[in-house]
Design goal:
Protein name: WD40 repeat-like protein
GO molecular function: ubiquitin binding
Strand content: 35-45%
Radius of gyration: 20 Å
Distance between the termini: 47 Å
Region (Disordered): 1-33
Pfam family, one: WD40
WD repeats: 125-168
Shape: globular
Largest sheet: 4 strands, antiparallel
Number of strands: 26
Structural class: mainly beta
Strand order of the largest sheet: 1-2-3-4
Order of helices and strands: HEEEEEEEEEEEEEEEEEEEEEEEEEE
Length: 325
């Protein structure tokens, strides 16, 4: 029996056909100087050594270093090995005296690493029981730490240089979707690191790591429940306030000085996927499942502009210099 992968050979609703036609037409636009990749982009991280480049985690199981400027060669390097989608990526400028190291969390339950310059694979971190969804790199008294969050609802603290597992944290009842360093309290030479986690259980939790221990902050007010459903992204601004993006179609600012009370809520027509804060321009930039990127006035919360160009959901944002990409 012959088989076909041609979508025209299968029954589709009028709405599905209309959506396919719209996306096909939209895919040819050149807004934002696009770089076309072979598969869905699941995460983006800034190259810490080159402000004009980013690292992209793909559903095809590769990490690519991509130039966001110019018209010439845009894909600068490709890092291979995984056979499953890569959900998150983080880059350390230096680890244990070496050059830049790339870390990528995979659907195969492991964290892959590469030497950024040589593209040689390094340690492979194994301990999670499900997809690795979020990564965070920090330094604690000179020791580089990698923090990973997984769909198995756990957070693991690793020695980033050796790949040794140091601590496992439990608290979320469903998958961990994002991790954010509390930059207002962070001192690499200090005695502790504080970070927050967001999950598909709609909770935001606070954690404290010291050279000898790791624990959840269970003080009054934690975990935080500002959203109605999954929290996809977290980021702190320069005032120490916490911004969160959620599948409840909102991006919210939670005020540190008012015990994380909601200060601002930015309404979206579909799931809010990511948020970044432009401290210089005074803008909040958000990514949405409706294929659009929105720019909001930070002070008033007023919508300033909507960028159109993507023809699938916008999954991640990063800030390069004074602008978001």
């Amino acid at each position: 029996m012959s088989r076909s992968n041609d979508p025209g050979h299968f029954f589709q609703t009028d709405a599905a056909l209309s959506t396919s036609a719209r996306k096909a037409q939209k895919s040819s636009n050149k807004k934002g100087n696009p770089v076309k990749l072979a598969s869905k982009i699941l995460d983006v991280a800034v190259d810490p050594l080159d402000g004009d480049a980013v690292y992209v985690a793909e559903a095809a199981g590769t990490v690519k270093r991509v130039s966001v400027e110019g018209e010439g060669k845009r894909i600068l390097a490709t890092y291979t090995g995984p056979e499953a989608p890569l959900a998150c990526v983080a880059v350390s400028p230096k680890t244990d005296g070496k050059g830049a190291t790339i870390y990528a969390g995979s659907w195969d339950k492991t964290i892959w690493t590469w030497d950024a310059a040589t593209k040689t694979p390094g340690h492979r971190f194994r301990a999670h029981a499900d997809f690795v969804k979020a990564l965070l790199l920090v330094s604690l008294q000179g020791t580089p730490l990698l923090i990973s969050g997984s769909a198995d609802a756990t957070i693991i603290i690793w020695d980033a240089a050796s790949g040794v597992k140091l601590h496992t944290l439990k608290g979320h009842t469903r998958g961990v979707l994002d991790l954010a360093l509390d930059t207002a309290t962070y001192d690499p030479a200090g005695g502790e690191v504080v970070f927050f986690s967001a999950g598909s259980d709609r909770e935001i939790r606070r954690w404290v790591v010291t050279p000898t221990s790791a624990r959840e902050d269970k003080a009054e007010g934690y975990p935080m429940l500002p959203h109605e459903t999954s929290v996809d992204a977290l980021v702190f601004d320069s005032d120490g306030d916490l911004w969160s993006a959620s599948a409840d179609k909102t991006v919210k600012c939670l005020s540190r000085s008012r015990a994380w009370e909601e200060d601002t809520s930015l309404e979206h027509p579909d799931y809010a996927r990511d948020v970044v804060v432009d401290e210089v321009g005074g803008w909040i930039v958000t990514a949405c499942r409706d294929e659009e990127v929105r720019v909001w006035e930070r002070g008033s919360g007023k919508l300033h502009h909507v960028f159109e160009g993507h023809f699938e959901e916008v999954t991640a944002l990063v800030l390069l210099g004074d602008s978001a990409w």
